[in-house]
């Protein structure tokens, strides 16, 4: 990759990693489901300027309901009831392994031995983290909702693959038209009109800033740059940069919010990242290249 494209990939990873800190701050101003709805209302505005991707509406609806509605209807409440942002950024990456599982069931894709091994290591990390649930800042419900968010993301990934090659930015913008109504309906039913009205009536500049960050840098800029890089380079070259998202997420949570990770959580996080690296990085090919260079 050219240096400027490496910098773009690092920028996207940093934006997406810091996103978890912004969510935590935003939950101080808005109920979680309302915050998610506001994010997509704003992210959908460019649809008046961008052409709709040539993807059938039934598939668009299925992708939007899993990739966006399901994922964030679980993730935002998880971070409210007991999932710190740094840890959430790590646990959510289990979507990579759920994607393998869903693809195997729906598309009959057989995972390789390396993928199975990486998944086993990562799920061992999740098991270690699960032992810390109930310690105050992490609850069993928060962990369960985070895993449900990862599973929903995985289903959306598989559905998105079936959409064919599309321009990522218009796709994300048009998909953003789908979540607002379901999320608002869930917010009214679960959080209640009174909580919604109070949040909107007392909104601060901090709250406005969190919605803007979630909609513009995280959703529009992040996915736009990511799609641009995927057009220039093979997915195997670009995808490993996503491993940096939880690094930026955990690092920014520690610096900005003072989040602490005990020995068990650190071990679990390391195991998850090791499992992700085993799956995402072309270890065998890199070793062959290194051996060839040494001859």
From TrEMBL:
Membrane topology, as annotated: Multi-pass membrane protein
Top-level taxon: Bacteria
SUPFAM superfamilies (UniProt xref): Multidrug resistance efflux transporter EmrE
A Pfam family recorded for this sequence: EamA
Location in the cell: Membrane
Predominant subcellular localization, coarse grouping: membrane
This protein's UniProt keywords: Membrane, Transmembrane, Transmembrane helix
GO cellular component terms, semicolon-separated: membrane
Record field: transmembrane: 7-27, 33-50, 62-81, 87-107, 116-134, 140-160, 172-190, 202-226, 238-258, 264-287
Stretches assigned to the EamA domain: 6-130, 141-279
Protein name: EamA family transporter
Provenance organism: Inquilinus limosus
Lineage: Bacteria, Pseudomonadati, Pseudomonadota, Alphaproteobacteria, Rhodospirillales
